[in-house]
Amino acid sequence: MAARGDERNMSGGQDSILEPLSFPERPCHRLSPEPDVAVPCVLCGETTPLSEKEALLRHLVLQHKLVIADVKLIADFPRYVLYWKKRFTEQPITDFCSVIKTNSEGPVEKQEHYFLLCDALPEDRVLREQLQQRRLEEILEQQQQERDDHSFQRTCLFCSEEFSGNRSLLLNHMAKEHSFNVGLPDNIVYCTEFLNTLQAKLDNLQCLYCEKTFRDKTTLKDHMRKKQHRRINAKNHEYDRFYVINYLELGKTWEEVQSEDDREMGEDQDDDWSDWQAHPVRAVCLFCEHQSETMDKIYAHMQETHGFDFHKLKAELDLRFYQQVKLVNYIRREIHQGRCYGCQVKFGSKAEVLAHLTESAHVMVLPEKSDWDQPQYYFPTYENDALLCALSDSESDSESADRGRDVPVIAEDISELRVLKQTSVLKHLLRDGGSCS
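Given the sequence above, the corresponding structure tokens read:
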């Protein structure tokens, strides 16, 4: 199963996953082009080319126990790194990062402290927003230059007619004469590269919409005309970087921005939910790529196909909600790393570990509770894991109380508690109340 964020490296015999993986939904993409500059480590003198960013992230995790959250949403990674490199020389890293202790219930020598740098820190959030704003300004400046450029010259993608002067002449021609509409010219940026991308596909006899390859140009043209494929596929995110709307908000694509616009328009209308339909949850099996739209079906599939009875384990181990979350994340991670969670034997591929689980009957064999009931497994192995969202949650009083104890709590700073007691208005209210009959 393909997944994003998949970094498997060996350090002291342990695998490392730099950030949550993701079940395949859409290909990852980068918006604006980034030069291959050297990016320094935030905590030491090592530098890495930007094209090898994953190597730098791996270095941060393995050498410094530092994890940067949501790296793919950082608009300008080199500037982001330089900013924090300077800040870490001014103050201790613990002033900025959340500290995560792994294997908290195990031996002290096996415990490790990781530092998480994320936008929950207001300073980090402001930095990310400033970098996003700066990139947007650069994109708008580039777009304006292209609007004002009258040296544009290019032949139509579908005929031999040539256009010179302004890019809008060619784009409007293709929309009117060839029914090939890529949107308003003013919404496009990096237009020359966009047209080069489309031309390369056509030169490779590839349909611009379905991207199937044909034996000759005549067959390709007939296909695109008959199937009405003279358009680009909006779900192909290779094209996102050519539309200004994708740069508007941090981490949002044009589909998300558009859906927000639609919701805002709907707020002025009557709240009629009669035709609303929820997007179906598609939970993925713990062991294979099978997906189901209901939890009953996915549980039945895992039991019938793989012999894994989640309900039985839940009852036998008296699993509370957050323990179920940690168990699912633990099993996902072990299988992703090619390891049997029952006996800890390492295999070369996921297929091998699944075959081993079946042959050795280890599917229902769990390790000691201390191995998987750990704080690090609150974090999802797959960031879009619908199975986690649909786990059953008993609302009994005893379980609710237990669940409260199971959730990590960040203590407030009570260093000034004595002063607060002396100055609190409650002190006067209690004193006055004591005289009431």
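The two ends are 72 Å apart (CA to CA). Try to locate this feature in the token string yourself.
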